[in-house]
TrEMBL record:
InterPro entries: KR_dom, NAD(P)-bd_dom_sf, Sc_DH/Rdtase_CS, SDR_fam, SDR_oxidoreductase. SMART domains: PKS_KR. This is SDR family oxidoreductase. The keyword Isomerase does not apply. Pfam families: adh_short. One of its GO terms (molecular function) is oxidoreductase activity. It comes from Mucilaginibacter sabulilitoris. Its EC number is 1.1.-.-. The lineage of its organism: Bacteria, Pseudomonadati, Bacteroidota, Sphingobacteriia, Sphingobacteriales. Residues 5-187 form the Ketoreductase domain. SUPFAM superfamilies: NAD(P)-binding Rossmann-fold domains. Belongs to the short-chain dehydrogenases/reductases (SDR) family. Keywords: Oxidoreductase.
Amino acid sequence: MSNQKVWFVTGASKGLGLTLVKKLLNEGYRVAATSRNLSDLNNAVDNHSEQFLPLAVNIKNEDSVQEAVEKTISTFGKIDVVVNNAGYGLLGGLEELTDQEARDNFEVNVFGSLNVIRKTLPYLREQQSGHILNISSVGGFTGGAPGGGIYCATKFAVNGFSEALHSEVKPFGIKVTIVMPGYFRTNFLSEGSLVVPKNQIAAYQNVRDTVNRHQNDMDKQQAGDPEKAAAVMIRITNESEAPLNLFLGADAYEFAQQKIALVQNELEAWKELTTSTGF
C-alpha cells in the first residue's frame, strides 16, 4: 500500500496528532511527525518503517522548526500537507493567570504555528500546491466559558490569521483549513495535559467548577472519537474544494450554531444603533 502525499504533523506524541499519524501510516502515507521529546514520540507511534520520520522539535524556536522542515524535504522530497497540531489547554480566570502563563500559551498555540507556516510556505509556494490544517478549537469560535479566556484567545488568534492566510496563499494553489474540534476522547483534559493557574483565587468558584467539570466529569467521557476525527481530516485533504472552516463533532456543531444565532439576534436587535454612525 502506498500513497504519494507527504504529511508534516506537529505535536504528534499524543492526542489527535498521535491518532492522525498512526492512521496516516496505516494508510500508506509518508509522515514527518514532531514532538519535543523524540523518545515519547517513538514509543507512542511505534513504527519503524521508511514511511515514518520522527523529529524532535522545539516549536517555539524558528531554527528548530527550519531544521525539521529541511530534514523532511531531504528525506521525502516534498511536503504536501502541514498540520499545526502542537498546543495545550489552559483553564484559569484572567485575573488568576500570570503574564507569563498567558504568554506561554500564546507562544506555543499561536507563535509555534506561525513558525511552522513561515518555514513550510517557501516549499509549498515553489511547488504551487499544499494544504495547511491549523488545529484550532470550537473555543476559537465561541469563548464564553469561565476560565477559558486565554486558551480561547489563542484559538481565536489561530482562526484570525488562518482566514488571512487562506486569502494570501490561494493564488499559489495552497489550501488552508481551520479545524475546530469539540470534545474528543484524548488525554487533552487529563491532569498533566490541561494547565491551571499556579496562583488560584478562591473567589472564582465558577472557574473552579469549570476546571473540575473538565478534569473529573468529562475526562475519558468525551463523545468524540479521535479515529473518526482523523479520518475526516484525511478526507478533506483529498477534496478538490476543501472547507476553510471545519467544525468537528456534534457538540462543536451545536456550539457554533448557538454563537451564530446569538450574533445574528444581536445584530438585528441593535441594527438601528449599529447603522446610525455614518455621516
